[in-house]
Please model this.
Amino acid sequence: MRAATPIEMRVGVYENSPKLFVDTNGRAAGILIDMLDEVAAAEGWTVRYVPCTWAACVAKLARGDLDVLPDVAYTEERARTFRFHAVPALLSWSQLYRASNVKVTSIVDLQDKRIAVLEGSVQASFLASLLGAYGLKPHFVAAPSFDRAFQLVKDGKADLAAVNNFYGDMQSQHYGVRGTPIVFQPAQLFYAARPGIRPDVLDAMDRHLRTWQGDPESVYFAILKRWQLQSPAQQINQRTAWLLALSAMLLLGACAAAWRFRRQAAQRARALQATENKLSLILDSVDSLVYIKDGDFRYRYVNEAMCRMLDMRADDILGKDDFSLFEPELAGELRAHDLQAMAESRPQVFEESIDMAGAERTYLSTKMALALGDGAAHSLCGISSDITSRKRMEESTRIAATVFESHEGMLVLDRTRAVIDANAAFCAMSGYRLDELVGSRKLPFQLAEDGGELDAAFWKTLAAEQKWHGDAFSRRKDATVCPVLLSISAVQDGAGHVANYVCTVSDITELKRIQERNQHLAYYDDLTGLPNRRLLLERIQSCLAASRNEPQLGALLFVDLDNFKDLNDTRGHSAGDELLQQVAHRITSCMRSVDTVARVGGDEFVVMLDAIGTNEDEARLHAEVLAEKVLAAVAAPYVIDSLPHHASCSIGVTLCAHRDEGLDTLMKRGDLAMYQAKTDGRNLVRVFEPWMEQAVARRIQLVSELRGALDGDQFELYYQPQVEGGRIVGSEALLRWHHPERGLVGPAEFIGIAESTDLILPIGAWVLRAACRQLARWAAVPHNARLAVAVNISIRQLMEDNFVRDTLAVIADTGADPRCLKLEITESMGIEGVEETIAKMEALRRHGIRFLLDDFGTGYSSLAYLKRLPLEQLKIDRSFVRDILVDPNDASIARSVVALAQALGLSIIAEGVETMAQRDKLLELGCHRFQGYLYGRPMPAEEFEDMVAAGVAR
Model:
């Protein structure tokens, strides 16, 4: 019965041969396409096929751009989006196929493997859930089609591919992949329909499928036979073969007789032609390939099946040999078989594989020599039957047997849940013999270690879901239990009733041990055995939540070893590890059993103290006492690798008053207090105070404002005169910040912050470029042309790989005279990489740039270090100049600096000169160049230029 009104069906087609695909002619083909065409013809539907990828097809169906999508497995989630008919069109299952160089014998081998899965498929989600239950973590690679999944394996971009058995059996050999013992997820396949489709469409699907599946002679089974289930006889009946050969000989004889007597016996020729036509009609109706070759192995006759296989007309085949029709390797194999058959008196049987249009087919060929009257073989007759489906079925059977006898334990139950078979792996796992298991309905499984049978509720759930998998326990024959991963799947018969249950059992005892070990590693430090940061944070969070309304206060102690890196660098990491273990023991010995001591970093420990006081004063006193106790314990002498060692620590304390403090806030405050202890001199205890947080906030704000100053052109260089013999010979460039709210800000307030961040690099680059521009401007004025400018550079700048290149580029860009540029480095900045630094200074000095050492006498430079640096000048620090008249030590230091400079051949300048008396004393000591308020404060470039023009008369 047809639909009331004609309808057009838009049907999606994606690549999943042999169920559905687009053939080489661009037409939709496959098992499910042929079935749909039969239904459409019966119902009067017009079908328009729309090629798309799987994911695109599903999206189109959801949007209503398609009416029907074949080959969709039913799930509850999909049923909420799409419409499904009731009778499944096909039954299928999924299987993993592997690359030839990948070894997979059980599901445990899938750990860390790359598995290609069809994007958005049920296979993908089910496989992820299944492997996740095992605790396995493979890497899933999404593919838009099964073809792409196999191609990924072939190209080495995936180790395995998950596909259905129909596609896998057909395409695995073409892509060079091999099946694995891992099969899963038997599925019912339907034609999914868009929401809102006419109900009579789905009713028609069910009506035809139900009728066809009840009749073995229906078009349904004919389609299946044509595409997947045809099974040619394994051997060609010898009598039939000889009969066909005899027919071929008669055909040749008839042709010869017709040619010989056609003029004398026209009537006999017509009769013979009729016989030939009848014989050709018979041979063309045979599905097997029938052909005759002459003595040179050229084709003299081919039937219609042979033409279809080659996709050629008979006229285009006749007269050619196999080397003209097939690849050389295959043609050589066929010729060898032909020669063997021509040499034998009996028919010869061969198995031959032919790759046509990318699809490999296997044929069982019977070949026999055709002899004429003289007894010599002059022709060859061959009959080849397609046994591809039978080979695939044999392979599927072999795989199924391999799966059953795999390393995973397996049980098969009948519909009454009685055991009917078990593999050797399960018998070995459980300790039962097969005869002890068969017939038993009391399965050796329980859901919990202390019980939990597979009761009626369990089987009811299984009946509803058709599958169950999860952690369980297996009872061995000796009454012990072991953890297992249990999967039970219901297998239905043709009527949709449960026929069997298949149980897969994996012993996960070792996996559980590994999980427990990983659990310990996840929460405890492997070196000291103390809780790690993760467990500490969980305990703090739990404590905060549990005691929100409690009157007792707690505290956190942040303990950080002082100069721990020195021990690692001088005596090795093994010595450092031993010290950490001893420190962990000492800190723990100072605490109560209810306190938590955790190692949260390399040499960082945190102690959580709970319930140490009812008010902040009491809690603070308790925490400080414990912190001082830890300080003393850590400071006691050590013996590390049989050698003495002394260590200390800095401790920051923050109180936990359970007043809605966030965990992050508490951790931040403890860190701030600990760093304050470090800043104040180490080996100290500091309790968090609000001003510490405010200082950090101010620092963060200042960093942000400095970034804005760079972008907003808020910096300016001031110049302080440098005088020798009453004449200005140069200046020092000093940075000033025109703050939009605070006015003019000196470098003392922000250079330290810039040094501790990356901001010193762009700020230093700005200063250098601004100073060079000023030098270039002064060079244009005769009385300013020889003025030198000293620019302070940071150690961060000096250590940059491109410092030399960038400095020379600035000079080239601005046009400054490099001989007028001095770069000041500070003795106290502790240059690292001395050899590299000296090389950079030498490279710049070769271009005329000079270096001077600032703040000399305040740092820690040795004479050996000092004499190696390519310096031109030393600067006496203002701290010695300030008290040079009243402090004999400062005078002695200044005298020594002058003497040292003279000995090294360096010029010298004193900074901070404010009085004539200081200048005279420095002249007396041998210093003749000065900088300070006596000659002028730092000033803008215009004022400095006016001062140079006016001259200095002091």
